[in-house]
């Protein structure tokens, strides 16, 4: 079983829609959770970081962590064509080595 | 603007060649990483380093070696390139501590023919 599972998509939504991206994990020791955005032919860039459970909001982006269900989510409100990218979740137990999901490809259609 | 710089964006090498991928960071980060990224497999850790001259194997080290002679530079070496090493290679660095994310380079697309 993989440490981190992520639906690869692809996901296609109209502009302005709310997008929900999700990852599940098996290691209950994970406590550091991150979301990265990767544009085509570029390296991933850090989008959101959350420690332990709870929500974190940054502009149109909200990250949620539910440790009891071993489930994390990234919500994108009022999605824009510029949000079209691959989104990767990453998580770690002790903050040293992070385990990545395989990424979800998102296209926002104008 | 802080960054991780990978020396080549695209490389084409022949089977059996020795290949060097170079990575330099300007953020004084202690930790540096080499990943490869393949469709459907995501990011897989090849090697990482917590300090100068220190290296640790990741999940898929076979066929690779690394060198970290200076804090800012981390090199990935393919001893004898094979076609199954055709991939996107991503270098990353991060500061020690759980609150810090990775800073990735733009990647090197390596094709072995």
Notable features of this structure?
heterodimer; A: 110 residues; mainly beta; six-stranded mixed beta sheet; five-stranded antiparallel beta sheet; globular; B: 113 residues; seven-stranded mixed beta sheet; three-stranded antiparallel beta sheet; 12 strands
Distance between the termini of chain B: 36 Å
The biggest sheet of chain B amounts to:
7 strands, mixed
What is the N-to-C succession of helices and strands of chain A? EEEEEEEEEEE
Report the span from N to C terminus of chain A: 38 Å
Biggest sheet architecture of chain A: 6 strands, mixed
Q: Provide the β-strand percentage band of chain A.
A: over 45%
Give the rounded overall mean pLDDT of chain A.
93
The backbone outline of chain B, from C-alpha atoms, is: globular
Percentage of helical residues of chain B?
Answer: under 10%
Order of helices and strands of chain B: EEEEEEEEEEEE
- The total of helices of chain A stands at 0
Task: Report mean pLDDT of chain B, rounded to a whole number.
Answer: 93
> What ranges of chain B have pLDDT less than 50 throughout 5 or more consecutive residues?
none
Largest interface comes to: A-B, 26 and 23 residues
Beta fraction of chain B: over 45%
Number of strands of chain B: 12
The percent range for helix content of chain A is: under 10%
Radius of gyration of chain B using CA atoms only: 13 Å
Low-confidence stretches of chain A: none
């Amino acid at each position: 079983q993989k440490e981190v599972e992520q639906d690869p998509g692809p996901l296609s939504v109209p502009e302005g829609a709310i997008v929900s991206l999700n990852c599940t994990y098996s290691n209950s020791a994970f406590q550091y959770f991150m979301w990265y955005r990767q544009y085509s032919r570029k390296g991933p860039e850090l989008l959101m970081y959350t420690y332990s459970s709870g929500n974190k909001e940054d502009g149109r982006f909200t990250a949620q962590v539910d440790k009891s269900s071993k489930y994390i989510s990234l919500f994108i409100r009022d999605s824009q064509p510029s949000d079209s990218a691959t989104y990767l979740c990453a998580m770690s137990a002790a903050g040293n080595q992070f385990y990545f999901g395989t990424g979800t490809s998102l296209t926002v259609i104008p | 603007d802080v960054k991780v710089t990978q020396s080549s964006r695209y490389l084409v090498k022949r089977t059996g060649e020795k290949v060097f991928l170079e990575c330099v960071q300007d953020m004084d980060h202690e930790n540096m990483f080499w990943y490869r990224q393949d469709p459907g497999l995501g990011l897989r850790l090849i090697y990482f380093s917590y300090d100068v001259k220190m290296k640790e194997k990741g999940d898929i080290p076979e066929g690779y070696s690394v060198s970290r002679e200076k804090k800012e530079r981390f090199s990935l070496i393919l001893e004898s390139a094979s076609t199954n090493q055709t991939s996107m290679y991503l270098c990353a660095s991060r500061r020690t501590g759980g609150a810090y994310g990775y800073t990735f380079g733009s990647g090197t697309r390596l094709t072995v023919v």
